């Protein structure tokens, strides 16, 4: 066999090294042995495996005629020196089987100290014949398996090269490749790498299959740097390898999390014409899925099909999962059909991926149908399957179904995880099923699977609802069970205190958080800022913001929105507008709700020009106003009696295709009702119902008040009856409005029927209701009934106001009862009430609102 030695001139500079001299395991000097064909040339003798000096003769190898038979003399044992053994092996150079048998017989007899040179000579003989290649490999494996310390690879390499020269063997690279392979086989990977490098240094190019074996071993052991180095050295001398080489390196890149490098290697291999097999295409598809590059996935699948290759079940599984992850459920389902038509069975991983795809599209029913189908087909769902369905059922507010799956999971012997429990607890809380959530929470605590996230879910529930006592109790329970609070736990407690306005305790929790080594984040500071704004403490809120910036915590968009909204709510809308400009310069991207906060602030301040100016800025910046924007503006224009602009905003909102909600209609209806334009109010009321919305009590309040104001109590009472028929509760304001209207029309009986109906429903009158009743009764001369109402007020602990006393005093003036009028005046003063101009007009001038009360008073 011809030697595959690389031409030294073609080796890159970093491989061009001086050929090293033979290295010995033994440090003792050895007697030189002349080369058989050149007695004048001298070299070092063979070193021993054990590192011991030769036991007897170290004479040069004799060039006596070769005896065709094994030694048979009685002094044979004494002649078993390395020199003698090598001489005997060389006599059987052309009969490798006999040479191996002789070597084995010598080993069995004992008394012979094996040496590297003996072993190398035998190896040369064995690889010289194709019949004994396997024996050569077995011999190497046996030697290295039994001698784990052994000789360094470079020693073997040097002796192989040296013995080939000394004993006139053709330098067969097969021996070197078998040596490399044996190091891998006995798991001496570092030695294998040294052997590989040593071969290159000696201009011996490893065969690609053996290089692949080493590459595979390195990748399997996650020695990626060494794999890269090995492959790089091969490439540097022009050896690209084969399909398996490409596969091994692509697998290494994927294990490193570098799918783009795997793709690049695949493209290079394709361009170089390497005959790539189905396994390489499969791992290329895997790399494309991880990037993800689904276009490339499709391209690779088409190429595989073009070559007649059917993707494996694993490849189908990976690809379908990738398409589901990218939201392309249609293609995922098409691939699933292709998988089934190619004879591959539907596995639980693919089924679970498709269920998740359905869930992400909001189609929980189809996901559950697929779940039932795979069970019917005998496919057992696993823990991941149940986890996907439980989580998404909870997200879809189908917590009852999620709990059924949870119970089924346990019935099948699959132990639920804390993630499953946490999903269910969160789902029950969002569905306002506190008892079920608490029961599941207690079960999780008792079983020991509850973690800090479990507690945080409940902490947040209590905190956002301002239930500080419950939150504190849960905190103590968490600590008592040995769980350390997290950053989120402290944030939840801070939120709880902020919700109830206890900012001192909120800051106390913040200080404790810092002392415990937790770092407050943007959410922590944002909650404190919001808490201070909610209490009207704008300056303190801005101080917290400055502190946040001072400790180099970058405010989030949530923080900026809180500040803008907070300033707008406390009447500092101009400052909020200036803040917005400053925040935008810092990279803040305002949302529709950001502008809505400022618009609402200006509307509350009555600055409609400024509000409309912000609306224009919003539109110019490319942000589309929403229903809240228009509703706020409509409400503002109605309050400023600018109904034309209010109606214009209403029509603009409709022209943009926005779905008007009840508040949007309410603002405009209320505006027309207050201006007495009940025709337009009724038109909008009808339109509201035509688009499928149901008017609420606020809309009815506006309509009833509007008809009362134009003295159309028949229409007002019809609305009241409609409310009752539709099950819409009538509140105190509606009853008061109706009573006032009927009293104005002298329909006392209807007024008192409504009053009795109101009391029967448990609605307690307020000072406004009593004022309406007393004023109406007094005007109609029903003073006795008026005093009964006054007594009722006393029983309820409600102090009459100046308006009530004015009505009573005026009533008695009309009846000519000046003494009672005077007494009521004194009683009013005794209660600490200050008479107004109306009171003195009645007492001094005998008039009220143009009515001359003197006419009803007889002169003394």
UniProtKB/TrEMBL annotation:
It holds the Pfam family PPR. Keywords: Repeat. PPR repeats lie at residues 172-206, 242-276, 277-311, 312-346, 347-381, 382-416, 451-485, 486-520, 521-555, 556-590, 591-625, 626-660, 661-695, 696-730, 731-765, 766-800, 801-835. Coiled coil: none annotated. Belongs to the PPR family. P subfamily. NCBIfam families: PPR (TIGR00756). This is Pentatricopeptide repeat-containing protein.
